[in-house]
Each structure stands twice: as C-alpha cells, then as structure tokens.
C-alpha cells in the first residue's frame, strides 16, 4: 500500500466539506459502538461457539432455514436481534450530512435499522432488515413487534412459516436495490466506505463501480480492497465521524 494513501481526520474533514455528492457504504463495524457485535473479528459472531454446533454461515443459510425452520428462528432471534441497541455517533453524523444535502445515500450491509432510527431517510439495505417479516406461503407481512411476541417459530394464519426479510446465504440479493446502489456509487463525487471487512461478495464488489478519485476506506484494519482506495484511515469509525462532522 502506498504510504500517501493514509490520511488524518483533517484531510477527511476537508474532503467532506468540499463535496456535495457523497455516498456512504457501511458494514458491521458501523454498529459495534452500539454494542452489536460484528461478524468476523476474533470476538465476533463467526468465532462464537453456539449450542447448534454448526458454523454461522450454515445457520444463516437458506438450506438450514428450509431443513430446520424452528432452530433457524431460535438462532436469529437470539443472535441477530438487539432490541436495546441505539444509534451511535457514526449513524447520527451521517444523518447530519444527509440533512445538510451532502450525503445522497447510505448503502448498508447491516440489518439492524440503526440508520433509520438515527433519522436517515435514503438507506439502501442490500442484505434486508429485521424490521420486516413475511409468510413464505401467502406473502402476508408482519411487523417486528408481532414476531417477537414469542421466541418460537412464527406461523402465519394460513399455516405458512414466517421469516425475516433478510438475505440468507445461498440467496441472491434484491437486484433493484443493488442496481440503485450502483447508480449512486457510479455518480458520486466522494465515496466513503466504512466499518466493513469488504470480504463478502457481491457487496464488496460495489467499490469497483466508483468512477471518481475520492474513494475513502475507514476501517479498524486493512481490507482486501485497500488497493482501490485513494485515501485510507484506520480507526474507530464512530469516533472519527464524531470528531469531523
């Protein structure tokens, strides 16, 4: 990596001040300051032992949902839902940038809805969310409050199984959302990518649609996409965003 890619918060602040067409793309690291564990760190979900004796990739797969919907439901309700989580400084900073007219879109891999809880309006959730639920048989929709009345499997009035509107392993992304994300990225001036390992495809491939020369990666550690960045900052994204916005 070229040393001149590394920047301090003053350069990042200047880049933001000079741009009125910013797009932000974030991952699990955006929500760790809200006490939601990430996935791939040593203390993350993917390295946590569980009673199910399967890797999280399988527990959150379409196959496991079909084969054992009750165990799947128990897993996502106990491991993915954090009812008491509140937006942190990064979420609120992005909301402020949106209200200023600078930030045009937030593209997130997260399913926790914290961007919306912070007040952001244009949020593209490429992996879905845990607010919305639907019956796989009749398509009837349900709210989070309805679903969390029980820890057990939720059954629709038609007898079908109710599942969260999230993208599981082995399932394809919503291409309308993905195309929308590509459009924002390819037309933005400043592209900020933060709190993501950039190890999950096709989401990580979104960086290649950026056409400008102000791609900033903010992360706690190096990513496989650092070579594409024009600017890099290593550190806590909630702290850096709070400092500069």
UniProtKB/TrEMBL annotation:
<dbReference type="InterPro" id="IPR003000">
    <property type="entry name" value="Sirtuin"/>
</dbReference>
<feature type="binding site">
    <location>
        <position position="138"/>
    </location>
    <ligand>
        <name>Zn(2+)</name>
    </ligand>
</feature>
<keyword id="KW-0862">Zinc</keyword>
<feature type="binding site">
    <location>
        <position position="158"/>
    </location>
    <ligand>
        <name>Zn(2+)</name>
    </ligand>
</feature>
<dbReference type="InterPro" id="IPR050134">
    <property type="entry name" value="NAD-dep_sirtuin_deacylases"/>
</dbReference>
<dbReference type="InterPro" id="IPR029035">
    <property type="entry name" value="DHS-like_NAD/FAD-binding_dom"/>
</dbReference>
<feature type="binding site">
    <location>
        <position position="236"/>
    </location>
    <ligand>
        <name>NAD(+)</name>
    </ligand>
</feature>
<keyword id="KW-0963">Cytoplasm</keyword>
<feature type="binding site">
    <location>
        <position position="156"/>
    </location>
    <ligand>
        <name>Zn(2+)</name>
    </ligand>
</feature>
<comment type="similarity">
    <text>Belongs to the sirtuin family. Class U subfamily.</text>
</comment>
<feature type="binding site">
    <location>
        <position position="237"/>
    </location>
    <ligand>
        <name>NAD(+)</name>
    </ligand>
</feature>
<feature type="binding site">
    <location>
        <position position="219"/>
    </location>
    <ligand>
        <name>NAD(+)</name>
    </ligand>
</feature>
<dbReference type="Pfam" id="PF02146">
    <property type="entry name" value="SIR2"/>
</dbReference>
<keyword id="KW-0808">Transferase</keyword>
<feature type="binding site">
    <location>
        <position position="32"/>
    </location>
    <ligand>
        <name>NAD(+)</name>
    </ligand>
</feature>
<feature type="binding site">
    <location>
        <position position="196"/>
    </location>
    <ligand>
        <name>NAD(+)</name>
    </ligand>
</feature>
<keyword id="KW-0479">Metal-binding</keyword>
<keyword id="KW-0012">Acyltransferase</keyword>
<feature type="binding site">
    <location>
        <position position="127"/>
    </location>
    <ligand>
        <name>NAD(+)</name>
    </ligand>
</feature>
<protein>
    <recommendedName>
        <fullName>NAD-dependent protein deacetylase</fullName>
        <ecNumber>2.3.1.286</ecNumber>
    </recommendedName>
</protein>
<feature type="binding site">
    <location>
        <position position="135"/>
    </location>
    <ligand>
        <name>Zn(2+)</name>
    </ligand>
</feature>
<feature type="binding site">
    <location>
        <position position="111"/>
    </location>
    <ligand>
        <name>NAD(+)</name>
    </ligand>
</feature>
<feature type="binding site">
    <location>
        <position position="112"/>
    </location>
    <ligand>
        <name>nicotinamide</name>
    </ligand>
</feature>
<feature type="binding site">
    <location>
        <position position="39"/>
    </location>
    <ligand>
        <name>NAD(+)</name>
    </ligand>
</feature>
<feature type="binding site">
    <location>
        <position position="40"/>
    </location>
    <ligand>
        <name>NAD(+)</name>
    </ligand>
</feature>
<comment type="function">
    <text>NAD-dependent protein deacetylase which modulates the activities of several enzymes which are inactive in their acetylated form.</text>
</comment>
<feature type="active site" description="Proton acceptor">
    <location>
        <position position="127"/>
    </location>
</feature>
<keyword id="KW-0520">NAD</keyword>
<feature type="domain" description="Deacetylase sirtuin-type">
    <location>
        <begin position="1"/>
        <end position="245"/>
    </location>
</feature>
<dbReference type="GO" id="GO:0070403">
    <property type="term" value="F:NAD+ binding"/>
</dbReference>
<feature type="binding site">
    <location>
        <position position="197"/>
    </location>
    <ligand>
        <name>NAD(+)</name>
    </ligand>
</feature>
<dbReference type="GO" id="GO:0008270">
    <property type="term" value="F:zinc ion binding"/>
</dbReference>
<dbReference type="InterPro" id="IPR026591">
    <property type="entry name" value="Sirtuin_cat_small_dom_sf"/>
</dbReference>
<dbReference type="GO" id="GO:0005737">
    <property type="term" value="C:cytoplasm"/>
</dbReference>
<dbReference type="InterPro" id="IPR028628">
    <property type="entry name" value="Sirtuin_class_U"/>
</dbReference>
<feature type="binding site">
    <location>
        <position position="112"/>
    </location>
    <ligand>
        <name>NAD(+)</name>
    </ligand>
</feature>
<feature type="binding site">
    <location>
        <position position="109"/>
    </location>
    <ligand>
        <name>NAD(+)</name>
    </ligand>
</feature>
<feature type="binding site">
    <location>
        <position position="28"/>
    </location>
    <ligand>
        <name>NAD(+)</name>
    </ligand>
</feature>
<dbReference type="InterPro" id="IPR026590">
    <property type="entry name" value="Ssirtuin_cat_dom"/>
</dbReference>
<feature type="binding site">
    <location>
        <position position="39"/>
    </location>
    <ligand>
        <name>nicotinamide</name>
    </ligand>
</feature>
<feature type="binding site">
    <location>
        <position position="111"/>
    </location>
    <ligand>
        <name>nicotinamide</name>
    </ligand>
</feature>
<dbReference type="GO" id="GO:0017136">
    <property type="term" value="F:histone deacetylase activity, NAD-dependent"/>
</dbReference>
């Amino acid at each position: 990596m070229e040393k001149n890619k590394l920047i301090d918060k003053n350069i990042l602040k200047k880049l933001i001040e000079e741009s009125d067409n910013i797009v932000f793309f974030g991952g699990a690291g955006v929500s760790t300051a809200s006490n939601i564990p990430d996935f791939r760190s040593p203390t993350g979900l993917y390295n946590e032992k569980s009673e199910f004796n399967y890797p999280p990739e399988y527990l959150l797969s379409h196959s496991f949902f079909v084969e054992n919907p009750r165990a799947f439901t128990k897993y996502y309700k106990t491991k993915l839902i954090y009812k008491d989580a509140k937006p942190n400084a990064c979420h609120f900073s992005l909301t402020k940038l949106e209200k200023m007219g600078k930030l045009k879109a937030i593209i997130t891999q997260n399913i926790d809805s914290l961007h919306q809880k912070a007040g952001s309006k244009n949020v593209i959730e490429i992996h879905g969310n845990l607010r919305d639920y639907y019956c796989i048989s009749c398509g009837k929709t349900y709210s989070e409050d309805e679903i969390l009345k029980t820890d057990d499997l939720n059954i629709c009035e038609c007898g079908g199984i109710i599942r969260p509107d999230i993208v599981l392993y082995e399932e394809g992304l919503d291409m309308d959302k993905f195309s929308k994300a590509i459009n924002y990225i390819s037309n933005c001036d400043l592209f900020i990518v933060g709190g993501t390992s950039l190890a999950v495809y096709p989401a990580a491939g979104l960086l290649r649609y950026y056409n400008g020369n102000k791609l900033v990666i903010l992360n706690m550690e190096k990513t496989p996409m650092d070579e594409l960045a024009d600017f890099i900052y290593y550190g806590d994204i909630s702290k850096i965003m709070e400092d500069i916005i």
